[in-house]
Write a structure and sequence with these properties.
By secondary structure, this protein is of the alpha+beta class. 20% of the residues lie in helices and 42% in strands.
Length: 137
């Protein structure tokens, strides 16, 4: 399934990994919101942790068709995600994301904290209030 990606940290426009991974490979990039998750500082990079009542701000990115497969593989490597590997830092999951412009719900790939990482963050991580990596203090 060729879903758009929801990015909420270093892949957002203006952040370091946007230019390295997304620049020139996207068709659209638009603000969005993932509900049912909160944001933690990694440190150095963020983790979305699934949690009812929370919301994470980010961008919904639609890849150009010809770049999709290569981009998906590159993002999996960046996020250290290997399907089925318990050592993965993130899991790539399909979730509903709300487009800010029109409130429409869109299915997208989201990299969320893997279970072991999420448990550590809930126990002693630093939560980013407001759920926006760009306004963290």
């Amino acid at each position: 399934m060729r879903l758009p990606f929801f990015v909420y940290g270093t892949l957002r426009p203006g952040e370091p990994n946007h230019g390295l991974f997304l620049s020139g490979r996207t068709r659209t990039e638009e603000p969005g919101r993932l509900t049912g998750a909160v944001l933690y500082d990694g440190p150095g990079y963020p983790y979305a942790v699934e949690e009812p009542g929370g919301a994470v701000r980010g961008d919904l990115v639609t890849a150009r068709t010809r770049d999709y497969d290569e981009l998906l593989a590159a993002l999996d490597r960046l996020e250290e995600y290997v399907p089925g590997d318990p050592r993965s830092l993130y899991e790539r999951v399909e979730r509903e994301v709300v487009r800010e412009a029109d409130g429409a719900a869109v299915r997208a790939w989201v990299y969320v904290a893997a279970p072991a990482v999420a448990a550590r963050l809930r126990a002693r991580g630093r939560r980013i209030e407001g759920g926006d990596w760009l306004t963290r203090s």
